[in-house]
Amino acid sequence: MSEIPALEPFLRTYVAETRAAIEAPYLLEALRGILPIFLRAREKDATIFFFGNGGSASTASHFVVDIAKGTRTSLAPGPLGKRFRCIALNDNLPSVMAWANDADYSRIFSEQLRSLAVRGDVVVAISGSGNSPNVLEAVRVAKEMGLATIGLTGIGGGKLKGLVDVPLVVPSQSMQHTEDVHLFVLHFLMAFLRDQSPPSMS
C-alpha cells in the first residue's frame, strides 16, 4: 500500500491539540466542583441523570456504565456499600420518540426529569456546542426542581455555561477535541471514584 504523506503530521497535530485541551488549568477547577456533587449524590442515594444528543448521547450512556459499575472496587455479587444511581435519559428511546413526535423535540429530556427526578438529584448535561435546545430546557427544569446541575461543553460554552452550577468548558473550537476531553473526564472520574473510595464503599 502506498504511503499517505499527510498522515503523520496530521496525527501529531491532532494529538498536540487534544493534549493542550486536556492540560489547560480549567480542568482541575471544574473537577473540584463536580466531585463533591457526585460524592454527595452517592451518600444521599440521589440519582444522577445524564443526557445529550448524538456523540454526547453516547457519552451520557457511557457515563452510566462506568459510574454505576466501574466505580466499584469489587464486582462480587450483593449490595456491598453505596452505589451510584445513574440514568441516561437518551437511552429511553420510546419516551424520547413519544415526546419528540407528540410534543416537541426540545422537551425529550425535561419531561422525563419532571416524571423521574426529585429535589436533591443531579443532572449532567452534555452538549459540545452548549446550545442544544433540549439540553438547555432540561437544565432549566432541573433548576426549577432543585436539582444540582453540571454541564460538559466546549466551543465557548454556549448558553449552557451560564445555566449550570458547575460548567466544564473545553477550551477548543473543535467538536472532536471537545468530545475527546469529555470522555477523558468520564474515565478520570470513574478511576478516581473507584480508587479513592474507602473499603466500606466497595
Provide the residue-averaged pLDDT.
93
CATH superfamily: Glucose-6-phosphate isomerase like protein, domain 1
Question: SSE order in H/E notation?
Answer: HHEHEHHEHEHEH
Shape: globular
Give me the count of strands: 5
Major beta-sheet overview: 5 strands, parallel
Q: Which architecture per CATH?
A: 3-Layer(aba) Sandwich
Report the end-to-end length measured between terminal Cα atoms. 51 Å
Subunit organisation of the chains:
single chain
**What is the CATH topology classification name?**
Rossmann fold
Radius of gyration: 18 Å
Give helix % range. Answer: 40-55%
Order the strands across the largest sheet as they lie in space: 2-1-3-4-5
Share of residues in strands: 5-15%
Structural class, by secondary structure, is: alpha/beta
Q: Provide the low-confidence segments as ranges.
A: none
- What count of structural domains? 1
Provide a count of the helices: 8
CATH class: Alpha Beta
